[in-house]
Structures are given as C-alpha cells and as structure tokens.
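TICKET: design request
STATUS: open
ATTACHED STRUCTURE:
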C-alpha cells in the first residue's frame, strides 16, 4: 500500500521554552486588557445615556397625555394622616359593597364584624327554642332553661372507675374548676352594645 509522508515545512519549528527558571520570564501583554476595559466603559456610558434619553421621552409623552398636575394628582404621604378612627357606618357600607363580590372575600375591620355576626348566631341558638330533628321531635332548649333543669334534676352519675393504688411518692391529681367559661365579648361588640344602650336612653 502506498504511504504518504506528511512532512512539516522547514520554517515551522516549535518554539523552545526554557523551563529551568520555574516561572514565566516574559511580561503579560496588557494591550488587550486595556482595550477590553475601555470598550466596556464606553458601552456602559452609551447605554446609560440612551436609557436616560428614552426615559425622558416616555415621561414627557405621559405628561402631555395626563395634562398638568392638580391637587388630585399630587403625591400625598399617607403616613402623616395617622390611624383613622373606626367608623361603623363606613364599615357597614364597605360590607354592603363587598357582598357584591364572590367568595372568598377580604375581611374588613380585622374580622370584627364577622366575629360579631358569629356571636349573634350563637346567641340565637343559646337563647331560643330551635328544632334539632323535627321528625324525631328533638328540640334545642335555651341555655337558661337547661341550667334550671340541671339544677332541679341533677346530672347523671357516672359509674365509679377503679384506679390502681398510688405508688410511693405519687399524689392523686386534683382538677380545679375554670374561672371563666372561655367566652368573652370583643371590644368591638362591647362598643356596639354601649352605643345601642346610649341610643335607647336618648329615645
């Protein structure tokens, strides 16, 4: 088979590197680095000028379309207004407006009105006779009547439970009655009750 010998040209010889010193003897060429940094700075400056000019053009066009500023278009620092007092009438109007939107809706006045409505529904169940199951004749009685019946008849006595004898050093657990029933009116409901009482006195 014929073979082809590829011979390198005589003028192309590998450069001999003297590695006896252990480091590069020649200096780094900084021309390319300086050119790159200069081009980058020019690009950044030109881009900033173009962005500033485009922003000025857009703002000028928006100002022409919006017209001159008036007292209604000035920026107001709302932090100077402080916390506005609660207005039940305004809250009622806002609640009526929010009823037009589908659920889930945002709560107004930190949910105080929703909590007041929940307590009102609970009061209806606690203070009135309501049907539990009409077919079986089960009726829910008012809580005051239920307490009267319990005071007259007493509670059913549960069968005694046998306990294992206490070990040495153990003591029998004691259960104390709670000081409250855990139910308390909110400040919002108390304010409403006071306002209604004051209105009733005036009438």
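STATUS: resolved
RESOLUTION: sequence designed for all positions
ATTACHED SEQUENCE:
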């Amino acid at each position: 088979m014929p073979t082809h010998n590829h011979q390198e040209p005589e003028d192309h010889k590998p450069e001999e590197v003297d590695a006896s010193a252990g480091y590069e003897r020649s200096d780094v060429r900084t021309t390319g680095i300086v050119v790159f940094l200069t081009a980058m700075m020019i690009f950044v400056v030109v881009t900033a000028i173009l962005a500033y000019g485009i922003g000025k053009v857009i703002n000028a066009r928006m100002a022409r379309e919006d017209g001159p500023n008036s007292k209604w278009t000035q920026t107001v620092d709302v932090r100077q207004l402080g916390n506005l007092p609660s207005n039940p009438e305004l809250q009622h109007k806002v609640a009526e407006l929010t009823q037009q939107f589908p659920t889930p809706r945002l709560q107004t006045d930190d949910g105080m009105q929703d909590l007041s409505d929940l307590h009102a529904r609970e009061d209806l169940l606690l203070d009135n006779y309501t049907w539990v199951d009409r077919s079986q004749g089960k009726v829910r009685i008012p809580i005051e009547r239920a307490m009267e019946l319990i005071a007259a008849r007493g509670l059913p006595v549960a069968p005694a439970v046998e306990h294992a004898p206490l070990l040495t050093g153990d003591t029998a657990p004691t259960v104390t009655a709670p000081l409250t029933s855990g139910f308390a009116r909110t400040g919002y409901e108390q304010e409403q009750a006071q306002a209604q009482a004051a209105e009733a006195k005036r009438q």
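CLOSING REMARK: Residues 61 and 67 are 10 Å apart (CA to CA). The chain is about 45% helix and 5% strand.
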